[in-house]
């Protein structure tokens, strides 16, 4: 028993020496990526993007106040690397945002047709409600995505769920996403913008 105690003490000491903590890790992620597949496909179930706000931006008052309110800036690409939709969805502290791939993220494509079946989704967490003018990403949002996989004959489907992948957001990537979204909003004439489900309407 003493050996176990000595070992735990040694691990904790080494962790603290290197400036870490054995019990907590700071997550400063603000940029996430994932994929979707078999969207807008007859017989296939709908996939869902879910995002929560952990409340870390509530730095001056208790959670739930305006300082903790954040936006998930979402960018939806098809499998030809073309941006089809973008939007900014509000997520309050401790709130849950649930977005349908078929109904919210690919139903109003820039082409005017809801036909994209697979592609990539990128999410930037920020205090900006304009997906075409994200200047300062912020940590505090975390997300998951369900993925729809087809069976051999496309008559059966498997659904899995995974966390969004933390990614590196360069200045060039941020500028490109802002510009692509701006072009989609400007040139889309109503198309090219995704919609946001109220955060108290999970499904």
The H-and-E topology, N to C, reads as HEEEEEHEEEEH
Distance between the termini: 49 Å
Unreliable spans are 1-24
CATH class: Mainly Beta
How many beta strands in the DSSP annotation?
A: 9
Strand order of the largest sheet: 4-3-6-1-9
Spatial shape: globular
Number of helices: 3
Oligomer: single chain
CATH superfamily: TM1070-like
Gross CATH architecture: Sandwich
Beta-strand level of the residues, as a percent range?
25-35%
* CATH topology-level fold name: Hypothetical Protein Tm1070, Chain: A
Please tell me how large the radius of gyration is: 20 Å
Number of separate domains: 1
Structural class: alpha+beta
Describe the biggest sheet? 5 strands, antiparallel
Describe it for me?
The protein is of the alpha+beta class and 203 residues long. It has one domain (27-187): TM1070-like (Hypothetical Protein Tm1070, Chain: A), CATH 2.60.290.11. The protein is built from 3 helices and 9 strands; from the N terminus they run H-E-E-E-E-E-H-E-E-E-E-H. It has helices at 2-17, 101-105, 171-187, and strands at residues 31-36, 48-53, 70-78, 83-91, 96-100, 119-126, 141-150, 157-163, 165-166. The protein has a 5-stranded antiparallel beta sheet. The protein has a 4-stranded antiparallel beta sheet with strand order 5-2-7-8. It is globular and about 55 Å long. The N and C termini lie far apart (49 Å). The model is unreliable at 1-24 (pLDDT under 50).
């Amino acid at each position: 028993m003493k050996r176990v105690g000595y070992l735990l003490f040694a691990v904790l000491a080494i962790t603290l020496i290197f400036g870490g903590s054995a019990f907590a890790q700071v997550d400063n992620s603000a940029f996430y990526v994932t994929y979707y597949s078999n969207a807008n496909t007859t017989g296939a179930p709908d996939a869902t993007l879910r995002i929560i706000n952990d409340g870390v931006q509530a730095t001056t008052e208790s959670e739930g106040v305006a300082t903790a309110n954040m936006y998930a800036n979402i960018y939806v690409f098809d499998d030809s690397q073309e941006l089809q939709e973008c939007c900014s969805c509000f997520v309050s502290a401790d709130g849950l945002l649930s977005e349908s791939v078929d109904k919210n993220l690919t139903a109003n494509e820039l082409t005017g047709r809801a036909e994209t079946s697979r592609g990539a989704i990128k999410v930037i967490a920020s205090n900006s409600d304009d997906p075409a003018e994200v200047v300062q990403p912020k940590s505090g949002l975390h997300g998951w995505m369900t993925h729809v996989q087809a069976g051999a004959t496309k008559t059966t489907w498997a659904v899995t769920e995974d966390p969004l992948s933390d990614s590196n957001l360069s200045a060039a990537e941020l500028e490109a996403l802002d510009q692509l979204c701006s072009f989609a909003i400007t040139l889309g004439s109503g198309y090219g913008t995704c919609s946001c489900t109220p955060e108290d309407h999970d499904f």
